[in-house]
Every structure is written in C-alpha cells, then in structure tokens.
Amino acid sequence: MVTFTVEDHDGNRQTVEAPDDMGLSLMEVLKASEYPVLATCGGMALCATCHVEIVEGENELCHATDVELDQLENLPAYFPTSRLACQIRISPLLEGAVVKLRGEDN
C-alpha cells in the first residue's frame, strides 16, 4: 500500500491509501475516493480534466511525457509541478507525496 495526501479545491487535506500492485492510476484512485475529478477522456491524456499539482514529492515521480505536456500547456493556468493524474501510476514513488486537485478549478 502507498499513502499520500490529497488537497481538495478548498485546501482541505486528507490522507489516501492505495494499493500499488494493481496498476491503478492516480486518477482512478481519486475518482474511487470520490474526489471531483472529471476525467472526461477516461485516462487517455486527451482532456486535462484530471489536472493535479504535485505539491510535495514531485522529484520522486517520472517526468511528464510530451503528450501530457501538450495537454497541460493548453490549460488556462498550469504550474511547473502540474501533472495529469491519469498519467501517474500508483507506485512506491508516490509514498508521502502531496497532490493538489486543480481540474476545472484552475
């Protein structure tokens, strides 16, 4: 299991625990945890409605792909640590990270 913190649009933080052996994406875990993540493209990196900001732990994660960066650059506002939750796999690299929801609330 991997434990990380999610900050919602109101600034509230909650610890989330997710299995790291099922190949789940951060987007899938956020949706299953009932966070307001639209993910209208279903995780194909085509819509950027699962936009998150990695507040802590960004150096542990893989860098964004060119496809992901293309989507992020089309957002009205994105940050150096912005990512698409659909492109981040739940793994030990996410342990202790803090993820801030951005989505439609940029």
Automatic annotation (TrEMBL):
Its cofactor is [2Fe-2S] cluster. The keyword Iron-sulfur applies. It comes from the Bacteria. Transmembrane segments: none annotated. Keywords: 2Fe-2S, Iron, Iron-sulfur, Metal-binding. CDD domains: fer2 (cd00207). Belongs to the adrenodoxin/putidaredoxin family. This is 2Fe-2S iron-sulfur cluster-binding protein. It comes from Fontibacter flavus.
